[in-house]
Amino acid sequence: MAEQAFKGTLTLTTSQLKQKFLCCSGCSNEYDDVENFARLLPCLHSLCNQCVHNLAKDGALPCPECEQKHEFKGDVASFPRDNTRQDLMDFVRVKLAPGAIICQSCRDTKQATFRCKNCSEFLCEECHTAHRRTNITRGHEILELQSLQKKENLDAFCHQQMCPDHNRELELYCNKDDCQKPICFLCAMVTHKPDAGHDIQEIKKISEEKTEAMRKRIDDVNMTGREIKQIIENIGREVQSVRTLGKEVATEINNNFDHYIQTLEKRRDELKRDVDKYVQIKAGTLENQLRNLKQQQKRTNEAAEFADQTLLYNNPPAFLQIQGTVVDRLDKLHNEWFDREPHEVATIGFSCKGLSQEFQNKVSSMAKVWSSNAYQPNTKITPKQNDAVQDETVTFLVVLCNYVGKPLTEDIGHLKATLTDPNGATVDVRVIQNGSEESRVTFVPFYAGSYKLDVSILDKPLGEHEFQVQPRDKPQGSNIDESQLDGATSTYI
Ligand SMILES: [Zn+2]
Ligand SMILES: [Zn+2]
Ligand SMILES: [Zn+2]
Ligand SMILES: [Zn+2]
Ligand SMILES: [Zn+2]
Ligand SMILES: [Zn+2]
């Protein structure tokens, strides 16, 4: 009989298995082996036969799980029936609810307690006894459900696959290119005759070959998976780098501007101190003047008051004794000079010379933040000369492009070119950017041999170019005539 290819140990829990493999992703019902058997879609998701029929429309079947649309020709039979689920279904049944399994032989409602491996059927006590009595089934391998429950893999649950045309075990395989399917003994005699070009093989041998081939492909796809994982990690790190670098650049901007802001603030304080100084000088002078005038005012008022008082006495001799002194004082005060004009007036101003609109315009356009979206695979490095010759200037044009291939026009301050000479020594070479799409790298190679030019931004490689430098005294090729040699010689003299 055919051996199940699956030998491995199951890694998922029983209920995960049920959820993942035994329930239709269209209607969520469990698959059965009658109407709602599983059909496998090219995306490796499954649908029950019913859902496949319901969802297929105009030659296309949308997968409810991944939304991929699968086109098909003819009828839905091109999505193969997946009989591997039957084994898993029985496995899960025995594991999860052995008490709910009913006998498949008498189709009564009797609880099953055995399973015949040869018939792939659950049996009740009575049918088990009958199985043992009947000649044809006497030798069948029958296991108790209790011992089946302890099984950790699907071997014991293998369903024998029968030929739909002849109801015989599918024990052979037709390996003819356009057949490629399991067949029964009768198929090989009737529809897949070897003398009609059919290639009949042992199913076990083919299964082993195909298992081996699938293992190899699993390894391959796992390798792809590991590569994707690696790339995801790399890109994740790049996201981190972008954020970190952004913070660093912001700090750099802060440091630079802090310095200028401090300078500006210092100047503002100086100017305000100047204002204070002028105010103090002016106010001080004026207050001084006020103090003198107030003293003069006081003296004047006192004298007038005293004189008024003097006139109140009705004592002529006494009056006359002092009137001379009083009048002298009044005259003196009346004629005394006093400050009429303020020594200072309110004349302080602010001249914004040097802090003009021009300066503000400069500030609003000073410095800049750049960001390169150069995409390495799109970098083009082209030599300007046909042959690079030792001791002669060579020039390369570098065109950086973004992910969709559009050349970058912005100057990038940190574009760096590094040259590796034939001795393995590296040296940075000048990159000239003139605002156009291409940058130029120019240098003079001192040696003949293999050179490599690397272009990078902030140590991120953006492209490389390898080239040969010809020795100056031995131009390549024997077909170069004398005049060309002369020409070549004269260029470096
Ligand atoms: Zn369904
Ligand atoms: Zn799918
Ligand atoms: Zn029974
Ligand atoms: Zn049996
Ligand atoms: Zn057959
Ligand atoms: Zn065939």
Automatic annotation (TrEMBL):
Molecular function via GO: zinc ion binding
Sequence ranges of the Filamin repeats: 391-471
Protein name, as recorded: Tripartite motif-containing protein 2/3
UniProt keyword terms in alphabetical order: Coiled coil, Metal-binding, Repeat, Zinc, Zinc-finger
Comp. bias (Polar residues): 476-493
SMART domains assigned: BBC, BBOX, RING
Domain of life: Eukaryota
TM spans (from-to): none
Residue ranges of every copy of the B box-type domain listed in the record: 98-145
Annotated coiled-coil segments of the chain: 254-310
RING-type domain segment(s): 24-67
Ranges where the record places region Disordered: 468-493
Entry keyword annotation includes Metal-binding: yes
Native organism taxonomy: Eukaryota, Metazoa, Spiralia, Lophotrochozoa, Mollusca
